[in-house]
Amino acid sequence: MCPLWVNFNEDFKKMVVELYHSGSAVKDLSSEHGASDITIYKWIKKYSPVHLEDGSTLTPDDYAKLQKQLRRLQEENEI
């Protein structure tokens, strides 16, 4: 098991999520890559794409960034 102070980079997290979506079990990913099951489930929630009607995809993280950008543009527009 990985020490608590280790930070994984974004590319690593996304790679683990891709492995999960390709059929790997969370338990296997946890033992192979040194992240806890709970951590991997958080990554899955954050980086798993949502398929939109127009065929594009958006992750919850992308959605949060778009919301933040929209709020900023709305504030600029009010000024």
UniProtKB/TrEMBL annotation:
Q: Where is the signal peptide?
A: none
What Pfam families does the annotation carry? HTH_Tnp_1
Q: For this entry, list what GO says about its biological process.
A: DNA transposition
InterPro entries linked to this entry? Homeodomain-like_sf (IPR009057), Transposase_8 (IPR002514)
Gene3D superfamilies to which the protein is assigned, alphabetical: Homeodomain-like
One GO molecular function term of this record is: DNA binding
Kindly provide the name given to this protein in its UniProt entry.
Transposase
Q: Which organism is it from?
A: Parageobacillus galactosidasius
